Structures are given as structure tokens and as C-alpha cells.
Amino acid sequence: MIPDSYFDRFTTPKYRGRNPVQRLLIRRFVERFHALFVAANPVESVLEIGVGEGFLSGLLSERFPEKRFTGVDLDGHKLAALHELFGRIETHQADIYQLDALPGRYDLVICAEILEHLAEPDRALEQLCRLAPRRVIVTVPHEPWFQLSNLLRGKNLDRLGNDPEHVQHWGRRGLRALLEPRFEILHAGSSYPWLLALLAPR
What we know:
This protein is 36% helix and 22% strand. The chain is an alpha/beta fold.
């Protein structure tokens, strides 16, 4: 169980919010994500794309201190905040479409809540495959449930619940169609209102 004190480390509104239902959903999501992480083992090196302030990688790095974690993000301010919170996570500022400069190889690549923001998600997945990881974990909002959840709490009403930065929308079938050309889907599941998948590059 993630304590409230962990949420309070971060400045991102999604985590700082005090809504108990929202925190319950995030806790459940993280525990299911944790289960996929364990299923991906053996893992020694982990790369998270779009790491932000490090909510996922930070928690995993504390739970698995023997593993090496690296975080990539476009936002240098978020990477600075990540470094303050979790000093042992190596950070790099980079675009998901340009990952060639990253040092080393990674056993596991995490791409959580990123693909829905991208105009070219398939191109991003190609970049992930070029890193040649043994396993990949992808998560995205589960539509239409994510938007309906926003509507129920009065968020983004003028956009029918859609977050303004979300340009892609997937249900189970749509996500599978996106992933299957490049990955074997080892596990596909959900944690309302998100979809999660553990993958092996083909």
C-alpha cells in the first residue's frame, strides 16, 4: 500500500490531489503495475520513458534497491525534481522519438501514460524496440472509461471529459492492434481507468 506521505512528495496535481477515490484508483493501478514488474523479471536495468517526477520509478527503486533505474523526459524541470527526490535514478533529457543517444542496454523499458500524448505512437514504439529490451510495460488510459470518469467528477466538461493533451484514445482492441505488430503480448489487463500490458519485442 502506498502511504499518503509518498503522494505528498510530488507537485504533479494528479498525485497532490486529496480526493480519496482518485488516490485509491492510483494505488490499485500501481499495485497491478508492480505485479507486471515482478512478472518481467529477471531485470537488472530499467528505463522509464516520460519519467516526470518519478512517481513509478521512484517507488520501484525504493522497493527494489538492487536494480538500476534510468529516467528520460523532455522536461528538464521535472528531471531536476526527480533528482532531488530519488538521487540514485540516472536521468537524461530526451525525446521519445530520439533515444539513440542513451547509454547502455536496458532489460525493461517502461512507457506509462505517454502514448496517448503522441501524434505518432507507432513511431515511438519503433524507438522502444530499437533499444532491444527483453521486456516492455505500456500503460494508457482505458477509453471511453477514462473520459467518462472525468465527466463524473466535473473535469474537462467542455471536451466531454477528454484531457486536452490526449490526442490518442484506445480501448482493449485498439491497443492490441497498436502493439501486436511489434510485440508479443505476454499479459494484457486493466486497472480502472487504465490499460496495462507486459510485452516482449518480436
